[in-house]
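Tutorial sheet, problem 5. The two components below are modelled jointly, 1067 residues in total.
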Amino acid sequence: MITFLAFICTHLYGQHHHRDSIRVDTGAVKTLRGVTISASGYKEVIPAQKLSGEALKSLNSFSVADAIRYFAGVQVKDYGGIGGLKTVDMRSMGTNHMGVFYDGIQLGNAQNGQIDLGKFSMDNIESISLYNGQKSDIFQPAKDYGSSGSIYLRSRKPVFDSTKTTNFKGVFKTGSFDLINPSVLVEQKLTEDINFSISSEYIRSSGRYPFRYKRIYHDTKELAWDTTAVRQNGDINAQRIESGLYGNLNRGMWNAKAYFYNSERGIPGAIVNNVWKNAQRQWDRNFFLQGSLQKNIIKGYDIQVNAKFANDYMRYLNPDTTLMHIDNNFHQQEWYGSIANKYSVSKKIDINLSTDFQYNTLRSNMEGFVFPRRFTSLVALAGAAELGKLKLQASILGTFVNERITMGNTSIGDSVIAASPKREVTPAVFLSYKPFPQADLNIRAFYKNIFRMPTFNDLYYTDIGNAALEPEYTHQYNLGFVYRKTLAGTALREWQLQSDFYFNQVTNKIVAVPKGSGMYRWMMMNLGTVEIKGVDVISDWAFALPENISLNIRATYTYQLAQDFTKRLNPTLQKLTYGGQIPYIPWHSGSLISSIQYQSWRLNYSFIYVGERYHNSANIPANYEQPWYTSDLSASKNFQFKRYRFRIAGELNNVLNQDYEVVLNYPMPKRNYKLILSVEL
Amino acid sequence: MRKHSLCFIALLSLFVAMSACRKDVEVFPGDDITVDTASKNTFTGFYLLNEGNMGSNKSTLDYFDYATGVYKRNIYAAINPTVPKQLGDVGNDIAIYGNKLYAVINASNKVEVMDAKTARRIGQIQIPNCRYIKFYNGYAYITSYAGPIQINPNYTQKGYVAKVDTATLAVVDQCIVGFQPDCLEITGGKIYVANSGGYMGAGNTANYERTVSVIDLATFKEDKRIDVAYNLHHILADKRGDLWVTSRGDYKSLPSRLYFIDKTTQRVTDTVSIAVSNYYLDGDSLYIYSTEWSKITQSNTITYGIVDTRTHQVVSRAFITDGTNKEIEIPYGIMVNPITKDIYVTDAGNYVTPGMLYCFSKEGKKKWSVVTGDIPAHFALLPNRP
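Model answer (structure tokens):
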């Protein structure tokens, strides 16, 4: 029987926002000495926003993208449904500025720079951590220094009780959208020092859901029109299988992992007048192998080696006979290696030097396509110091990118060139200060300058690509605090409040601009400028109520003024868009998660609010987007039958049946439900 | 404890307060802006069709009223409030024939038919991937990219011209033409269709179409093809019935050009070495503009000019004379009032936010300008009727 040690455990690192996450983490530490990621004794200077354990499990979310909506400062662009594209934007800097790391190594997409987090189901994910700036643990690959913000996804790792050598878990999920989603996990202790796990999952859904549009008259408020239809072509059929080996070494550890994902899905498309159904299809096949080794060589000197090979295939088909027939495939490969060296100068000062090398290729059957190859070398030098009340980290990252192209499918006479080499040196500084010895108050600040490379599509895509593109830069300034208070003898056991104020600049922003010859055509250019002033507030409360009922509440609030300062040629049009809030970024957004635990019962209520927005930076009534907010409920019960541990859960999403859109013309599901049955032994 | 509870309640009520913001969406009321003084004219006004970015469903209709000088923006939804999802996605052409107004809405696969005076909806003609419209003798002729599919290893799909009875709005006949036909012109008992091959040539110039299809009006069969140049776009007949055709070029080494087809020889007999993105014929003056991408300056080079259709000479290099042309980001639509000779030019801006309409006097001085919908593009003059 699982017991929740939420209120008795002491903090391991102190950065957990979720009481519930502690069970998992202590478990990991108890039985897997040295296998926790934070092998260094340092506390993070600025801790992550983190969801893990039971809190994550009982959150009504099918994919990682659904869960990430509950973080402060994050906006998810959701095109709707289980198969719909879901991309994440941190602090309004654009989705390309976010790094997503799966079990410690970055997921790449050199073609368009977007990671579709809708593809990562929550089935095998144990924790999600989000860092603004970068993970402030210096002992990491150079790539980990290379994004404006990072999301770390951690899959489940094998943990065994003293007597057990095998774990088994089977889960079956079903519900709205004709969802069928079984998954199986087996974990095996191979030797005293080596554990093995294999996890696989099958997802099938028709993606069909009713949606409704309606309009009322301005004057009379009477109904003008009201249409309900069924979302079509949002089906998905996906398989995931991943397997890992986890080993302990003398003063070190290693792991190796293979991941395979295969899917076919419909692209539901925009709902426009006279078109209520689309036919475009997409196939994805993602495979990667990755390994990591970490070892203490001599006293004070640690080494970490990471390597990865990824092979991604994507096919896009437009079979719609009223449109241009497209059947394109794109084939990407990535080779990656990294060595990080940490040297402890003293007990208080660490230095780390990381060098990474990455090689990316892209091929396609598309006409006029060039085949680019990118060689990226990264060198990061970082230092961390704990000087009493002050914790300090500083890093400098050098990025060196060279590209070559082969003519690919271009015809003779096409003048295609490779992008010129890029050399960038970018710094980051992180500070935290604890002014009072008694009060658990930490003041923190960071500055980071980083950039994103133009993607292969930005540079070389047939007709719209522009090989002259420069990187797109971000500058982030952040000041915040966290205050934590533990109380004895009251119902409120513990509460925490944290808040950050930030100012971000995105310069040289890569935007699509109209291109001659007066027809509807585009070109990628470094023209945009965006400035973001924002506030994130996160608060957690943990209550211990009578009858051994525990209540946890977490609330977040985000304010963002994200303004488009792109200069225009036309002064009247500049007046319309200059200083306008950028597309789809609400001024106000927030979330609430609350859960009640009573013995083996758990009830979860979560709420998301996204305030009014505009779908482009001309903030006029014609471009206005309504606020939307959804309430989700879930209930679960754990019980044991002989050696089998069961969990049964029911979820009800969008309880108030709101008809809403996150993205213009992409209707979201109305009220929907899910049932989950899991068995472990 | 009380303090914390208060804090919690405060936060919860903040959520509730924020939640109170969602309302039912109203039909967009449109707005009226007085841009000019009232004037009399043989035209009542003109419609301007805004294309809207693809997928945005933001094709909108604007109307300028000469009698009052009022520009009415986004009128379709206000006049037709019960039409689900309004006018549609990507308006590609607009024209008035008889007492009906026809708007070709490309990505909504339809031609919207409205009353010419009131813009009240009459019905729609279902034509997939429809492009341009012309009329003759009670019939509308509409080009479409989406002809029958040929089952062979190399997927190909020719376009067609649909013949529509303007009384019943029924498609009565179809004539297959080349790949991706764009503009068409009807003169001398023939329909001339500019084939682009736009879907075929994007990656390989040789795959563009380079012909004008000639359809006999009586038989509604394709007679022949006239070879012109790669990637044709616009076509129109001058007073004498000779044809002016534009090619887009291949966006790479081949530039856009203007070609002259002699009506008697039915062949290209002249090329004006000027790039043309769009044009408008008034009398013997062909008002043109072009936008060309320069790899060297990494910007669009925009030029304006007038070609005399009698002499085939470029007689003017600037019909905007007061410097306003410097602030136009992407000229996209052009029209000349045949009576006042006022010149109307639209600016499509950045394609995703509203554009502008400029009115210039015949001397090229700005008279007025107004913000339009997204990608203002196509004009239809509304004649006075008793």
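Marking note: Chain A touches chain B through 89 residues (CB under 8 Å). Full credit if you identified this.
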